[in-house]
Write a structure and sequence with these properties.
By secondary structure, the protein is α/β, with parallel strands linked by helices. It has a domain of 86 residues: Ribonuclease H-like superfamily/Ribonuclease H (Nucleotidyltransferase, domain 5). The chain has a five-stranded mixed sheet, covered by helices on one side. A hairpin with a 2-residue loop joins β1 and β2.
C-alpha cells in the first residue's frame, strides 16, 4: 500500500538580512514595568485552503497582551501596517517598537507610521 496523502510544506523564501545600522535598543530586556513601553511584533504563517497565509501580531511586553493583528495571503509591509493600524490604544504612548530585521518591518511605510507617532525603533541583532 502507498498513501496518496501528502503533507503541505512551507518553503521559506530566503532574503538578505536588513543591514540597517539601527541598534537593538531592547537588548533582550523582555520584562517591562510600564504599559506600552515596548511593543514587539513578528509574523507567522498558517495553511488556509491549501495556501499559506501570514499573520502579524503586535504584543505589549508589559503584560504580554496582543494589542494588534492582521492576516492576509501576502507577507509584505501592508500586512504589518494593517496590524499597526488595528491597535486600539493611544499609539503616542508607545516608546519602542522592536522587531526582527525583516523587510516587512523596516520599510518606508512603517518608518513614516513610527515617525508620525514619535515611536523609536529597535531591531534585533544581526546573526
Amino acid at each position: 500500500m502507498v498513501s496518496t496523502y501528502t503533507v503541505a510544506q512551507f518553503k521559506p523564501h530566503s532574503s538578505p538580512c536588513n543591514e540597517s545600522h539601527q541598534k537593538n535598543e531592547l537588548n533582550r530586556e523582555f520584562d517591562q514595568t510600564e504599559e506600552l513601553a515596548v511593543v514587539v511584533s513578528d509574523l507567522t504563517y498558517v495553511r488556509v485552503k491549501q495556501k499559506w497565509h501570514y499573520i502579524c501580531l503586535f504584543v505589549d511586553l508589559f503584560n504580554r497582551e496582543m494589542i494588534g493583528f492582521s492576516a492576509c495571503p501576502n507577507k509584505d509591509a501592508a500586512l504589518v501596517y494593517r496590524a499597526f493600524a488595528s491597535i486600539q490604544k493611544d499609539l503616542r504612548k508607545i516608546e519602542y517598537f522592536h522587531t526582527d530585521r525583516g523587510s516587512e518591518f523596516k520599510n518606508k511605510l512603517m518608518d513614516e507610521a513610527l515617525k508620525t507617532f514619535d515611536i523609536k525603533r529597535s531591531l534585533s541583532n544581526v546573526y
